[in-house]
Structure formats: C-alpha cells, structure tokens
Amino acid sequence: MDRDSLKENQALRLDRKFAIIICILAVGLCLGYAWFRADFPPWLKNSGGGIPYTLFFVTFFFALFPKRSLLETIAWLAIGWSCVAEFLQLWQVGWLVQIRATPLGAALLGSSFTWVDIPPYFIGGGLGYLLLRLLFWRVSRNESNLRNPIK
Q: Residue 127 — φ and ψ, nearest 5°?
C-alpha cells in the first residue's frame, strides 16, 4: 500500500470515528429532547425533535460512507429520509401501525403526519452538514499545520 492510500485510509477511519461520536451525541440529544421537551417553547416542543433526528441520520449515513466528497449528498439523503418517514405516517396499513406502536418504531417512523415537522428536518440536515464540515475543516487545518509548522 502506498503512502497516499495509507493516509486516505487513516483519514477515512478518523472521519468515521468523528461521525460515530456525533451520532451518539445526536442520540443523546434525541433522548434529552424527549425528556425535557415539556419545558420548551410550543413550536420546539411540538416539532423540534426533527432537528436531532435528522442530525442523527446525517452522522449515521456519513459513518457508513465516510467520504468528505459525499457529505452534501448524505445531508440531502438524511433530509429526504426524514421527509419520507413523515409522509409514511399518512399510510395507516396494519403492520406499519403495529411497528409505530412500539417505542423504537415511533421514534424512527413517527406516529402522525404534520406539515410543521418538515422544516426541522432541513434544520437538522443543515446542522449536521455544517457540524461535520466545520470539524473536517479544523482537522484539515491542524494536519496542514503539523506538516508545515511556522518557524
């Protein structure tokens, strides 16, 4: 394996680790939101869960495909998934209703459709994109400083 391939593999592993850490933090945000949402303002209380939900999916999909060049596509994919899951709530077929009746099914698929849930998906997707982008910018900057130290 040549030196450039080795560096690329190391960068991919590091990017995946960052994404997994942020993904775990997003799960914590989802749980914190569920726990404290009664104290939030009405809009955030009723629809704000879509923000950490979509942030989770941005970082989850990026952990699966940790290529920085795919980050924008991954963010749109996470927003798209969130919107599809929202629209699936209009479909009230028996087996899907049974899945939604479980805590995990309700968390992943929701239970009732509402238009006001859509904007938070875009906020969460944008936040995930910006968070990972900022992180990669900082890591790249630190790597270049290590290679070219100021004398």
A: -65, -45
What DSSP state is assigned to residue 101?
T
Q: What average pLDDT does range 1-15 have in this prediction?
A: 75
Alpha-carbon distance of 117 to 131, in angstroms, equals 21
Report the alpha-carbon distance of residue 128 to residue 123 in Å, rounded.
Answer: 9
Q: What is the mean pLDDT of residues 63-83?
A: 93
Degrees, nearest 5: CA angle 124-101-118: 25
What residue has token string 């709530």? 89
Q: Residue 63 belongs to what H/E stretch?
A: helix 50-64
* pTM of the shown model: 0.78
DSSP letter for 150, please.
-
> CA-CA distances (angstroms) from residue 91 to 16, 41, 120?
35, 29, 21
Amino acid at site 30: C
CA distance 16 to 11: 8
Nearest CA among 111, 101, 51, 46 for reference residue 78: 51
